[in-house]
Amino acid sequence: MSFYLVQFLSGLATAATLFLVSSGLTIVFGVTRIVNFAHGSFYMLGAYLGWTLVERWGTTPLGFWGGVAAASLAVGLLGALMEVGLLRRLYRSPELFQLLATFGVVLVVQDAASWIWGAEDLLGRRAPGLKGSIDILDQPFPLYDLVLIGLGPLVLGLLWLLFNRTRWGTLVRAATQDRDMASALGVDPARLFTGVLFLGSALAGLGGALQVPREAVNLHMDMAIVVEAFVVVVVGGMGSLTGAFVASLLIGQLQAFGILVFPQITLVLVFLFMAVVLVIRPYGLLGRAEDAPPTAASPGPPLIPSIGPARWVPALLLALLAAVPLVAGDYALIVLTEVVILALLAASLHLLIGLGGLVSFGHAAYFGLGAYGAALLVKHLAAPMPLALAAAPLVAGLGALAAGWFCVRRSGLYFAMLTLAFAQIVWSVTFQWYGVTGGDNGVLGVWPPDWAAGKAAYYWLTLALAGGALLLLRRAAFAPFGYTLRAGRDSALRAESVGIDVRRHQWLSFALAGSAAGLAGGLYAFSKGSVFPTLMAVPVSVDALVMVLMGGIQTLSGPVVGAALFHLLETEAMSLTDWWRLVLGAVILVLVLAFPKGVAGFARDLWTRGRDT
Amino acid sequence: MTGQSLLAVRGLQAWYGRAHILTGVDLAVGRGEVVALMGRNGAGKTTAMKAIMGLLDRRAGSVAFDGRDVSALPPHRIARLGLGYVPEDRRVFTDLTVEENLEVGRQPPRDGAPHWTPDRLYALFPNLAEMRGRRGGRMSGGEQQMLTLARTLMGNPSLLLLDEPSEGLAPRIVQQMADALRALKAEGLSILLSEQNLAFAAAVADRASVIEKGRIRFEGPMRALLEDEAVRRVYLAL
């Protein structure tokens, strides 16, 4: 009995941290409508800064708590700086660009933290005066965790007062609902948003700094927490503070007790829980329909098939690419093979985002399913490569058909989070099902047969298969299917009123995109000779998203250009410097600020402008 | 008139995306004057109001308020100069209470413009006084319209841009609205209101400008519009 009580209490302590971080995220989202990936980075920075300050001052209680507070304030200032220097320039850009920009910040912060604090885990000092534990029904429980448990409701209360009893809070709530109207009443939204970013980031920083006595500070804290915080925010209902609080409590308990019942799959439990909540309560526990984000992709000008000389660009490019092995060496061919595979991955995601208006945060799942589908056939059934490559899109397509059935029932960020949930579930199963998948040892020895083993041969094979798939995707975009998808994206209501079953087309496009990603995954498996669970982890999904956004979502060539740009940049930066994340992040930030329509969109604008005049 | 106009709009153009909505609008509102901007649905009334207020991304032409060029200022700066905007679609903050809605509109007192407090507004709109703690989303259309107007008045404007104040309101509420506007005029407030309802406009306005296809087609005293059947038939009749 007492054991369960202690377990319950430690669940509450986890919930407190989770609430601090997710309250900041939900506030920032509520006001700015920005999906702020950098929120996890602010949490990590809070932990690192907290560690440094607590090392220096933390011998006394005053020094310790002063250090925590200072770390939180410093992180808050960084958040405000990000708003002024970056986000403010992007409020008129498509919403996804803001997401891309915050992802650039994530990369920069990762390398900055690694440069300042090193890659080693840092163990922090414990809080003076709270080092011990007290006995609760004969079970020891850390005093510090008891303090954290009290902190959660305290912060909730303070935030409630701030938002409901101050003029600033009233203005923030007003601007959250109708930014333009608030500004027509004399409220400067930009200043308000700077304040909101300060507050939200300071809360993330506070959550991070408070973790210092509980766990080692490391460079992986950012992504882990931001995914969890998104789950909390979505389960609680976007923009609802009380909802975030309730969701934190539930998820804290789920983790505390889930680890007893299913020690291996706590992560899956959390995502399963989110999926169930979203199926039963579409806008989260305490969210309401009007708080739901609008569909993420802005329509933009309609796609038109290229006419004139531009029509021949894809064929010309394909011919050029096919000729490359005549001049290039093995290394260049390996990189180019990867580029072609990633172009297919990005283009398949673009089918969802650009045509369907469906932003997936979990597209890596289908890339991974394709790769594992092929690799496991080879490993367990000794299947030949052509069969394995044919199975890859099938396996991934079936997976997408199953997941898509749930996902397309929701839209906007809720759709994104459901796709993320399924990706995490697939990832966890792959990671933990040692008997079949080999767990994190992966599957090795997935090589092409002799006739395709040469770098040039495999490159041509990839080019033929991926190029063919790309042409099919392009064909779909200009077929009635593509028009239907775009109609559903631009106005689901109007599309339905002329008799289109929008949801069914979205479901089909999800399956189609999934199987195209699966083919890319299968090709990837044979190009590397091995597959690992990281293929379907969050970073791959994010990479795919970045490729699509870098290229620009409003053109079909965008994802291809974006994939090439991203992968070449990444490979180049990695080979030149250890600080490739910093370089890549900085490049993303510059690109976002300089080309708010994406690179391909910018080039097309130049092209049409040149022809108009 | 232009010399001492409180609001002087010259050659105002505006676009929604690529659609060119206003092709050249000239308007003037003198101090203490009520001007009705008349026109059919889609003629450009709302767009003109939004463009004056700085709420459209793309506009051209000049807007002078109180002798100062405001055509490049963001909406909040324009509002703080004393230009109050009341949108047609009653954009009350539905999550906020009546009192909180008023608080959002509050600006410091301004020389040469009536000074409003919640209590004075509750006296002007007795309905609102009875529901201070009610959320905007739980009010009737007429109550929301009153609240939107009261909220803008909290900014102590010297000129009010009122977009279709009578639209979709019950006749009794329309009457209350007309009474309120006359009371505001008596306070010395200048008003530019857009209207389709000729009777309503005639009851409150001194002058009228008629807009059609993004351009002003008629400009003159309200009485002249009432007597000019040709203009009414061509530009206003449905």
Q: In short, what is this structure?
A:
Chain A has helices at residues 2-32, 38-57, 61-85, 95-117, 143-165, 167-177, 179-184, 189-211, 221-236, 241-261, 266-280, 313-323, 330-355, 364-381, 385-407, 412-432, 434-437, 455-478, 480-490, 492-497, 502-528, 538-551, 558-576, 580-594, 599-612; strands at residues 133-136, 139-142, 443-444, 530-531. Chain A is mostly helical and 613 residues long. In chain A, 54% of the residues are buried.
Commentary on this structure:
The complex is a heterodimer of chains A (613) and B (238). Chain A has 613 residues and is mainly α. Chain A has helices at 2-32, 38-57, 61-85, 95-117, 143-165, 167-177, 179-184, 189-211, 221-236, 241-261, 266-280, 313-323, 330-355, 364-381, 385-407, 412-432, 434-437, 455-478, 480-490, 492-497, 502-528, 538-551, 558-576, 580-594, 599-612, and strands at 133-136, 139-142, 443-444, 530-531. Helix content of chain A is 73%, strand content 2%. Chain A folds into two domains: 2-291, ABC transporter involved in vitamin B12 uptake, BtuC, CATH 1.10.3470; 314-543, no CATH class. In chain A, strands 1-2 form a two-stranded antiparallel ribbon. By secondary structure, chain B is α/β, with parallel strands linked by helices. Chain B is 35% helix and 27% strand. Chain B has helices at residues 45-53, 75-80, 98-105, 118-124, 126-129, 141-153, 171-186, 198-204, 222-227, 229-236; strands spanning 7-16, 19-29, 34-38, 58-65, 68-69, 83-86, 159-163, 190-195, 207-212, 215-221. In chain B, the strands form two sheets. In chain B, strands 6-7-8-3-9-10 form a six-stranded mixed β-sheet, sandwiched between helices. In chain B, a hairpin with a 2-residue loop joins strand 1 and strand 2 (19-29). In chain B, helix 3 (98-105) packs parallel to helix 6 (141-153). Chain B is globular, with a radius of gyration of 17 Å. The chains are: A mainly alpha (613), B alpha/beta (238). At the A-B interface, helix 6 and helix 7 of A face helix 2 and helix 3 of B.
